[in-house]
Specification:
This is GH23903. It comes from Drosophila grimshawi (Hawaiian fruit fly). The chain is mostly helical. It folds into 4 domains: 2-41, no CATH class; 63-118 and 276-331, no CATH class; 123-194, no CATH class; 223-274 and 354-403, no CATH class. It has 14 helices and 6 strands. It has helices at residues 63-73, 83-104, 108-114, 123-141, 144-174, 183-194, 219-233, 242-265, 281-289, 304-308, 312-328, 331-340, 361-371, 374-384; strands at 2-4, 7-9, 22-26, 37-41, 388-391, 400-403. Strands 1-2 form a two-stranded antiparallel sheet. A two-stranded antiparallel ribbon has the order 3-4. A two-stranded antiparallel sheet has the order 5-6. A hairpin with an 8-residue loop joins β5 (388-391) and β6 (400-403). The longest helix has 31 residues, at 144-174. The protein is flat. The chain starts with a strand and ends in a 5-residue tail after the last strand.
Amino acid sequence: MTRISGHLLWTFIYGGFSNTCLSTYSSVDFDSDHLPVHIELAAKGLFAQAGLRRRILPSNANISKFQAYLNQRVLLNTEINSGEDIEDAIDVLNSNIYEAAKYASPPHLWQKQHSNASVKKTSLDDQTRKLLQLKREFLVLRTSSARQRYRQVQNRLRKALRLLKVNYLNNLFKQIDVHDRYRMQKLWRLTQTLKRQVEPNWPFKMHSVDGTQTWTRTNSEKAEEFVHHLEARFMPNYLNTEEDRRKVAGELQLLQQQQQQRIAGDGGAFGTSLPFRPVTLSEVTLEIKALVLKKSPGLDNIDNHVIKVLPQKAILYLVLLFNSIQQLARVTQFILGAYEKRQYCSAVFIDISEAFDRVWHEGLLYKLIRLLPPTLYGVLRSYLSNRSFVVNTGADPNSATGSYSDKL
């Protein structure tokens, strides 16, 4: 335990346990001044899939039976059109590998493990998963029936969470001993959070053309006012004369025309987008041959020994997955998925006041087109063209959209 600037830093030290048997999470504990961090030790491991307690393919397994089973079960005509299809295809491949290893291994190695393959889902997790599914349907369909189904599940989940919180507080009150000398301090910590007031949502003056001063009444009006304010702030900060800007704009247009002519003359070899070269079977085979057998497996327990004995049909399936991932990978999918799962990303920001939003875009592109190849220039130019932003206030599902003034 180390004291740093008035705070306590707790360090957990363990040994002799696998990382798959440990679970670390934080919880809201009203009996503590800090955010408690819990570490749980699972005796049977956190993963209940069959075969995760030892190597799924032992040394005395029949490799020929393993490869024959995979050649029979792996299908190369799988259609992959989205990120969810990729996840499903990976799960199917892992399941086929587990079943093939079970088929090729001695029976006594899998009989005891098969009985522990059970995962219990709580009703709260099921409601949360259903709520996210209905939310995606509502955002796609935008119909009244989809909205009604989404609201019903949302209300049921809120009631369940409210009841869970009440039961949790009642249990905490029951745990306070009336003969404890610190009972008043514990009681004060519990009631401190219960008596906390909700911060008010103050209105502010709206933007008007005729000069009249009115106040915002709804969240949508407040969002629109934020849009007007931000659009006024996102203005280019020119530090040169108008003649210099016209000169740079003309030279930039000339360079862009020369680049387009070069692209057309080379038959698209220097296109504005990064060229995609599919992964080949020989490349994947060379990477598999270079794997080290002594490396420990991942969470799926598929070690390098299993990968090295995969048949060619399974390797072709991996090639299909690799090429599909590169074609379907979109940053927006990761952002939306993390937003639904309430995952957060830490970032480091350099304190430069409005550097990106008030930069002179034509001058920046003029420097980029002279320094970078056409492929990278096209990618960076796409970040600056047709930019917009969304303002969402409170629980109002209707968001206000604004645009940047320096459009290309």
